Amino acid sequence: MENFKMIAKTFFGFEEILAKELQQLGAQDVTIGTRAVSFKGDKGFMYKANLSLRTALKILKPIYHFRAFNEQSLYKGIQGVDWSKYLNANQTFVIDTTIHSDNFKHSQFVSQKAKDAIVDQFREKFGQRPSVEKDFPDLRINIHIDRDQCSVALDTSGASLHHRGYRTATNIAPVNEVLAAGMLLLSGWDGSSHFLDPMCGSGTILIEAGMIACNIPANINRKEFAFEKWNDWDNDLFDQIIDSLMKRTKEFHYSIVGFDKAPSAVNKAKDNIINANLEDYVKVSQANFFETKKETVGTLHMVFNPPYGERLDINLERFYRELGDTLKNNYPNTNAWFITANLEALKFVGLRPSRKIKLFNGSLEARLVKYEMYEGSKRMKFQQ
């Protein structure tokens, strides 16, 4: 099988860890872009990347590139692709468009023009045409226009890869699965210590932590990928890739624990953990973090997503002050990481973060912050 170029889309701030994931999987010509990493691999690697990558949102396969200045050059460019290689007249397709161009104002207009070019080509060649299906198409086409440069790609993934397949129940402000995995990887989590999410909600961070610790492919529980409807779909190859990935899973010898104040959140987390087949590794209980203390020996790794007043009505000053006090007084020898989009609230923690990483939680600019809690005082640690 020959290699071809692919592009993995991701969130801002995750480009380098996505590139590292790709390199570890065996990708070639890995190049970091903005919210994207390009690479090369064959069809089997395309399957493997979709199954394995924790920080990718989509994997695109570019098939054509041209310059588009106006409606006519766009139409002509799209007709430059032989669409019968990818689609039959009795199949369905949909077009997703993103534009950064003065030549085109509306992505919907570009999608409509591109659709016309494709169906006109089929009518001329075969006397019949494929139809548009927005929800469950046989082929998902991605068009990206940057100034006058138009890239046409096939979407190999379908629904965003954060749809892992294990989360059937969510809370008020759930953290996206790709965001959770990226936070964990940025924090250095590798399964070599005990882990705690003290505000676990529906359990997403816990599950992603368990999958990383056991080296379980991120999307092993997912029901479907777009490439399964392609004309060159190879079921036997896909099964071989899954078998080889599952042989690389490993045992985990520490604890992964989650707390939440709300009984409803605990129940949802337990359901999702069972869906992910991680109930042997991940335990959840009802508890108010501010009334808990560290119960494990050795270094504790903590990653969580506290409320920041967007959807939950809380007294931010008191909440973040209690958060800092609990870490300082009850959790020695702990590396605590959390994300917040309320940068003012960080002032109330009362501790100095050792790291701050800019991320986005949805459209909200956020910071992933790290607080290092030492055994005894920090001064004593450096005098030893």
Describe what you observe in this structure.
With 384 residues, this protein is an alpha/beta fold. It contains ten helices and 15 strands. Strands 2-3-1-4-8-7-5-6 form an eight-stranded mixed beta sheet. Helix 3 (71-78) packs across helix 4 and helix 5 (177-186) packs across helix 6 (204-213). The termini are far apart.
Helix count, DSSP H or I runs of 4 or more residues: 10
> Low-confidence spans: pLDDT under 50, at least 5 residues?
379-384
The helix fraction, in percent, is: 25-40%
Reading the helices and strands in chain order gives EHEEHEHEHEEEHEHHEHEEHEEEH
SSE class: alpha/beta
Cα Rg = 23 Å
Q: Give the spatial strand order of the biggest sheet.
A: 2-3-1-4-8-7-5-6
Name the shape in a single word.
elongated
Short description:
The protein contains ten helices and 15 strands.
Main attributes?
384 residues, eight-stranded mixed beta sheet, single chain, 25% strand, 15 strands, disordered C terminus, 30% helix, seven-stranded mixed beta sheet
Strand and helix map with partners:
Blueprint: E1 4-9, H1 15-25, E2 28-32, E3 36-41, H2 43-52, E4 58-67, H3 71-78, E5 92-100, H4 107-126, E6 131-132, E7 139-146, E8 149-155, H5 177-186, E9 194-197, H6 204-213, H7 235-246, E10 256-260, H8 263-275, E11 282-286, E12 300-304, H9 316-330, E13 334-340, E14 355-361, E15 364-373, H10 378-383
Parallel strand pairs: 5-6, 5-7, 9-10, 9-12, 10-11, 12-13
Antiparallel strand pairs: 1-3, 1-4, 2-3, 4-8, 7-8, 13-15, 14-15
Helix pairs in contact: 2-7, 3-4, 5-6
